[in-house]
Amino acid sequence: MDITNRSPNCVYNFLRVCFGGFISSGASRIPQDGENCYGASDVSLQSPTAGDCSLQQSWDITYQEAAIYLQEGENNDKFFTHPKNAKALAAYLFVHNHLFYLMELMTSLLLLLLSLCEAPAVPTLHLDIYVHATLELFALVVVVFELAMKMRWLGCHTFIRHKRTLGKTFVLLVQFIEAIVVLVRQTSHVRVTRALRPIFLVDCHYSRAVRRNLRQIFQSLPPFIDILLLLLFFMVIFAILGFYLFSPNPADPYFNTLENSLVSLFVLVTTANYPDVMMPSYSRNPWSCIFFIVYLSIELYFIMNLLLAVVFDTFNDIEKKKFKSLLLHKRTAIQHTYRLLASKQRPSGIPYRHFEGLMRFYKPRMSAKERYLTFKALNQSNTQLLRLKDFYSFYEVVGLKWKARRSREYWFDELPHTAFLIFKGINILVKSRTFQYCIYLVVSVNGIWILVDTFMLKGGSIISQNVPWSYIVFLTIYGVEVLLKITGLGPLEYFTSGWNLFDFSVTVFAFLGLMALAFNMKPFYFIVVLRPLQLLRLFKLKKRYRNVLDTMFELLPRMASLGLTLLIFYYSFSIIGMEFFSGVLFPNCCNTSTVAESYRWRNVTIGNTTIVEEGYYYLNNFDNIFNSFVTLFELTVVNNWYIIMEGVTSQTSHWARLYFMIFYIVTMVVLTIIVAFILDAFVFHMNYSRKNQDAEDEKGITLEKEILKEELLMILELCRRDCNTFEIAELRKMISHLDSNGQTSVHLVGRRSRTKSDLSMKMYQEEIQEWYEEHSQKQAEQHMEELLPSRKLCQRLGLRPRSQTIN
Amino acid sequence: MDITNRSPNCVYNFLRVCFGGFISSGASRIPQDGENCYGASDVSLQSPTAGDCSLQQSWDITYQEAAIYLQEGENNDKFFTHPKNAKALAAYLFVHNHLFYLMELMTSLLLLLLSLCEAPAVPTLHLDIYVHATLELFALVVVVFELAMKMRWLGCHTFIRHKRTLGKTFVLLVQFIEAIVVLVRQTSHVRVTRALRPIFLVDCHYSRAVRRNLRQIFQSLPPFIDILLLLLFFMVIFAILGFYLFSPNPADPYFNTLENSLVSLFVLVTTANYPDVMMPSYSRNPWSCIFFIVYLSIELYFIMNLLLAVVFDTFNDIEKKKFKSLLLHKRTAIQHTYRLLASKQRPSGIPYRHFEGLMRFYKPRMSAKERYLTFKALNQSNTQLLRLKDFYSFYEVVGLKWKARRSREYWFDELPHTAFLIFKGINILVKSRTFQYCIYLVVSVNGIWILVDTFMLKGGSIISQNVPWSYIVFLTIYGVEVLLKITGLGPLEYFTSGWNLFDFSVTVFAFLGLMALAFNMKPFYFIVVLRPLQLLRLFKLKKRYRNVLDTMFELLPRMASLGLTLLIFYYSFSIIGMEFFSGVLFPNCCNTSTVAESYRWRNVTIGNTTIVEEGYYYLNNFDNIFNSFVTLFELTVVNNWYIIMEGVTSQTSHWARLYFMIFYIVTMVVLTIIVAFILDAFVFHMNYSRKNQDAEDEKGITLEKEILKEELLMILELCRRDCNTFEIAELRKMISHLDSNGQTSVHLVGRRSRTKSDLSMKMYQEEIQEWYEEHSQKQAEQHMEELLPSRKLCQRLGLRPRSQTIN
């Protein structure tokens, strides 16, 4: 991903790509002559223009192409979108750029946020129609520009084949027309199509996780729908049955027509109306409860769980297939790269020179030392050449962060003896179990204190004006603990542990709360309220909690992306809800419905007393996007959702129920996926840790390599050509450090955090081997066709065709 | 299991066991002298009394013991409860007997059903105190008798070590004392201990599945409780937070004290009070919704799912471990049996003579032919002797039902030509796709017809007095279809398919409904209402539904046992509920509580109109065991459960909430286990069918064996000694049939349905091998000790020690 970020010439690229060939190529990394080489003559395959290219420049292009292959492997971009000529290459580099990505993100966010200001707007954010319509037009123009850029890279043919982009184009067109219409008429019509706006966000580079979730949701849909049909089918059967059984009872409003019967049973699946729906018939005949018990047992306890099971199973299967295809895609990318770089003279591998060239394009921010270390880490056979077999582990090794192995045990090793002894004592103290358990004890006492304190409060002034002494005592203990730990372990070690970071921040917060109390700063009182969070520290105590919390943190990114996916659905439903239902709910609005009670605001007289009865449900409306989101969250939680549904239905039409039912089903899908995901991730982690009980503590992937002084000198030599001065200075410092200590080599440790992919690699170890064999068999069949593009390129470039051996 | 059922002397055994040695031993299967052999001299190891035993009798004892080993292997009884002397053996045979099992079941059911009649009784079933107390005492005496019998078998030492039996004894004692107290005082005190009665049911032989579920629930508890603590912990933190944030709002009844805050948040985890609990604060400050959204996201959407994940993971693990231990237990049982039967002269295997003797005791109902076939099926090496390696698959083979292979293709093969052609035509017709789809079409039309018909009804008289013609038309079509299928496929083939059975019964029901309509029999009108069930036939159409329904049917027994387990919990909670809360709920009972509305039955005046407002919740009470069960089901469904809780709390004390909260947690555990079970079973099945895509259609385990005429003659020869005349006649018929057809052999097919164990065997194929190796290593260490008991026995019996070789 970093490939495109390196060059200072992205602005140049921008201009060049935008304005075609009008600017003459300056001193850009993509060599000015190289540009001609890459594909100026992409029509005339028979007339290579290679005569113009110097060798180094042609190699640079090869590195560039190889780096693009690696990037495609990483991003799971299909190889048929591989840029095939200079124009496409320039567009590719322009589009794959953090600036461009950010622009994409900003435009889509702007488009989404517009609904805050469009009528029905959030009161404080209301904008005039011509302002927000102009903003929208501007954003849409930017999107058009982005699309045009992508088309330049992909070419028309691929562009049309790509469904998502095609959909985006269509939505763009509709939005454009509508925005203009709004601007012309100076009034907003029913713009339900705004519900499609999230497609721009989904299409962003950064929304990869959301796209993946959506894909997974869509792939889980077919089995889901099958079981849903089963569910609906039983619902219909029971609705007919219920209608026959209960409609003779005039006191039963739930089954008096077939439609009501169906709606009641739909709501019953969500349990939202449970005992109530049964009560009229139950009070008439106790045996009628059997109908409801059987219905709930079948629908809620069996079919709903089956739904989860089916989705979970599909999810599992998809995850594995996805992992497999990603793995094989990366492998193919590595093969493509290898084929480009392994030279004819040395067909058995890639020499360091080429590897270094590749890395300069693939990861421009990487230092020369790290490049060499990566090469060395890959090169298991310790020969001059990197073989394909070793090169396959490229993606695992390239992410490592290299650091010199720490020779010191403690941070205070080099202090004078007395200080050393003191710090050593503190170190032993803070690492001792007694110390830890003392702290746990203090936290527990603190927790009980807070609980009792709060319990004694019973209303009255909640936060007293003077600072309670217990607060100061406990805070002092925590402060001392933090100080001791920092001095004992050294700041570096202290802050690398997530738990310590948590302790630290909680203590700092508590301190800020104390300040707020002491100086009577009302707006910061909420910090005082966070005191109970201290108690979370107790969860370090038990291993299972540590496991669970670790898993939780590993799940967080994915959870966040799932939450975002849910929000996207919320957004679409909010827009639709606002267009149709905004303003329909208000106090005493729904007097004709069965749920009138919940919307009532009235004075009731019972005997002689008058009571104000406030049904708050009119607050759950679609009057602006914030309210809609809260309402939709309430619908997601499902409880009492039918009150909102019936309220809206009584104010609009029967068809409004469809909106709510469809929303229920959609959130059910997403939530089921979330459950399946948590289940899958957790079970996977547990299985993994059961399989690898020895290596349990290992938190990340580490690799140790030794570099000899001679190798450092060689790197320095190579580096002189194109490294910056800082890097050279660092290398020199390292060599002189070696000299002064009389050592001949330096040990470096590469470290990175463990990803799901690493875990999967270990879990499916045996199967992976099978996949590889299967894959290479398939490739052997396609071999000739696959080789063609790079051969064509070579022919075009007039370069010697490089080796295509694969071992 | 059948071993004990065979002998007509179980009554004799009963008397003999009950009255010790008072009756002189008659002509029982356990030979009168053999009884002495088995262990009369169990003290005097040095003085064998074998001189008294004839060889055949001593072998019979060996067969008996071997059969008991096999039975223990099957029932997962531990080997240390293996009967060690004649008294224990007699008690063992007495206790392992379907009559005894039934007695156990009946007593425990009687005890459970007593609560229908004890105050507070179901109105129509009320019994006087001395009647039900006497019944209870009677049942308890029977239980004492059963326990005494078990003690005779197990011996005092083992008896005390067995926790469940010990618990049962304790409960028995308490119940006894209480029943006597009730009888003496002639009034019932607060008998909460009745909640322990289900232990008698759980201890029944037939409740094995329930015991297994309970064990699984208890094993899943530790991780469950850990996560539950996490949940409660966050609840406490948020309760304190909520109290600080919302208690200044006087309109907010949910957070005005810390206790209310805690209860509100507990109920919120179940979502039962969701939008309501938020509304007062939300109407004051819209941002307060964040508190609730964060709380629900953490508790409901994360931790609750984590709970499921942890239970699912534990469940998975336990299932596998259970399967492993059962498998190894069976293997050990087979080894024990083999050791007893492999003779010294022929240490390499069991001759048929001994195998036959064993089977006579293990499965007395098995015919001589089946015994021989089982031997032949086991004997892979086709030698005279059955080797241990082959003997290991004993349990898989012994369940097969053997039938002569059908030589006929159709049932009408032997009819005259014309008839054959007609039936053949029908056969082809009913098997054709066109026919099937026509039927599906008819069913769909019927479904739409019913739907439209019901929709047009709109109240009025629901079931018209005259039979609608559409009903007759569709029923005729279904009738013709059933007849065609039966004639085309033959009744035997027709009724072996579950789907056909379903079709048949639905059609018969519809016909009965028609009769009911035609002859105007009101009580049977409900059958008419079942018409929509016809639509279920449509689910044959799609493969996934067939899969799902097949899985469902395979799950049913286990689901039923899980349901029963839930009912046992219901029972205990009902008793407690009835003891404390019976009679506290009635119309207008809870006017002081926040949920008074739901219990109200009053006339309200709004302006000039008077409305009767009926809150039905007073019906959800604990006034008798039926009502309690319905109330508990409503609590299980969770929605609005807090209305019942608050109602009861307002009438009793704050501590009543504990009952409801504990019940919620218990049902949560059981329901989570149910979900985990469905998930596990379903995913297992899917994985299995994915792994074995070829053998997908195979519905059961089949095995084919050929028996030569000579072998049949040999069986007949052996049989003359102790087979009944019917069996001999059958064998003769078979031989003569062979003679008349001029065949020299007959083919027989053994068939049984596939069990979960078979699937597991296939799934864990590789691991099983590892387990076996591990197991035999462990055994090799314990070898000498394990051999001791049987050696001792031999020494006692004065018989030649039999071979102990294991290959």
UniProtKB/TrEMBL annotation, chains A, B:
Q: Which Gene3D superfamilies match?
A: 1.10.287.70, Voltage-gated potassium channels. Chain C (1.20.120.350)
* Transmembrane keyword on record: yes
Q: What is its main location?
A: membrane
Molecular functions (GO terms) = calcium channel activity; identical protein binding; intracellularly phosphatidylinositol-3,5-bisphosphate-gated monatomic cation channel activity; ligand-gated sodium channel activity; voltage-gated channel activity; voltage-gated sodium channel activity
Top-level taxon of origin: Eukaryota
Identify the Pfam families for this entry. Answer: Ion_trans (PF00520)
Q: Which GO cellular component terms are attached? A: early endosome membrane; endolysosome; lysosomal membrane; monoatomic ion channel complex; recycling endosome membrane
Entry's transmembrane regions:
99-123, 129-149, 170-188, 224-246, 258-275, 290-312, 437-457, 469-487, 499-517, 559-578, 658-683
Sorted alphabetically, the Gene Ontology BP terms of this entry are:
endocytosis involved in viral entry into host cell
Q: Can you state which reaction this protein catalyses?
A: Na(+)(in) = Na(+)(out); Ca(2+)(in) = Ca(2+)(out)
Annotated family: Belongs to the calcium channel alpha-1 subunit (TC 1.A.1.11) family. Two pore calcium channel subfamily.
**Quaternary structure and partners:** Dimer. Interacts with MTOR; the interaction is required for TPCN1 ATP sensitivity. Interacts with STX7, STX8 and STX12. Interacts with JPT2. Found in a complex with LSM12, TPCN1 and TPCN2.
Kindly provide the name given to this protein in its UniProt entry: Voltage-dependent calcium channel protein TPC1
